[in-house]
Amino acid sequence: MNTQDILNRLDRSALDDTAPLTLKVGHLRVQIRALPPLMDELRSYFADAVADDGPVDARIDVLEGQALDPAPDWQDWAREPGKTGRKDAYVDLQDARLIYKVRTGVTFLQSADHIVAFGPTASHPNQVVNFINTQILNQCLREGWQICHAAAVTNGTRSLAIAGLSGGGKSTSILRMMDLDNTRFVTNDRLMVQVGTPVPTGLGIPKHPRINPGTILGNPRLHPMLSKAEMERLHAMETDELWDLEEKHDLLVPDIYGADRIQYSAPLTDFWVLNWQRGGAEPTQVTQVDLATRPDLLSAIMKSAGPFYQDQTGRFLQDSDPLDPAPYLAALSGVTISEVSGRVDFDALAQIGAKLFE
Question: 3-class secondary structure for the chain?
Fold first, then answer.
């Protein structure tokens, strides 16, 4: 089975009369075709990245309500250590890969020439957003960039990225840096880094933060995102219970921080890795380290490209492919790397960040 076999089973004719949406992120441009109301939602979500029509690096079609019948013989994609449950499944074709979201039924065709999302896409716009951003990540990876599991902000000349293990507080930390008047949002969870002089270039993706209630509760600026009843429920929770609560909320950066507070491309000067402890006795401190001697910290930065990545030769990534530290160390050359240790204290970290951006 090949790409054309799948395309023959899908009907894309409804998209022929739609006006495409073009996005520009750094030097990359992608074009999307979708039907309303999903297209309207995507246009609003990506408002800060919308660009004029022109040459693009990738074209993406989004279909609604279509499925493959009979279904392929899906194979589970192995999840990262510490993650449980089925999430992604895939089937490799002769010249493409099909990826299936187990929990929602949304399916994706990823190939060199055809990029298509289909299934209940309108009911799961966040997965369409992620698929669109994946094409930006894929193009960067083919150009030699490295993908970091990090959030970042910039003031235009100085940029701070923050990484940590899942649930370590990087989103909460980076949003505290956004409370500074002179910073702009770069990215919340995926940061591309390319070798540069005197410092590398960092490139974010147009993905607004998806944050848990604890992040909202700890930052008065975010309180309007929740109702009074929800705030009262959260205040009644124990600290550990609140920290572990998974209830994602979309934070649209312009709605909270105002216009002109997003900048996707920026020189990367500083990188903090959260290695602090809840309930620790020692005060929060930020200490410069040599990343080459700290594989534990580097492991928190490195991020697999996942089942969607197809390199320039046409080969798809396998879930058994190891991550190579060497390209990361090269790409991060010139960046001041620091370890955040001691107890979890977002107020203290915000004060250190304010000094960094003075």
Answer: CCHHHHHHCCCCHHHCCCCCEEEEECCEEEEEECCCCHHHHHHHHCHHHEECCCCCCEEEEECCCCCCCCCCCCEECCCCCCCCCCCEEEEECCCEEEEEECCCCCEEEEECCCEEEECCCCCCHHHHHHHHHHHHHHHHHHCCCEEECEEEEECCCCEEEEEECCCCCHHHHHHHHHCCCCCEEEECCCEEEECCCCCCEEECCCCCCEECHHHHHCCHHHHHHCCHHHHHHHHCCCHHHHHCCCCCEECCHHHHHCCCCECCEEECCEEEEECCECCCCCCCEEEECCHHHCHHHHHHHECCCCCCCECCCCCECCCCCCCCHHHHHHHCCCCEEEEEECECCHHHHHHHHHHHCC
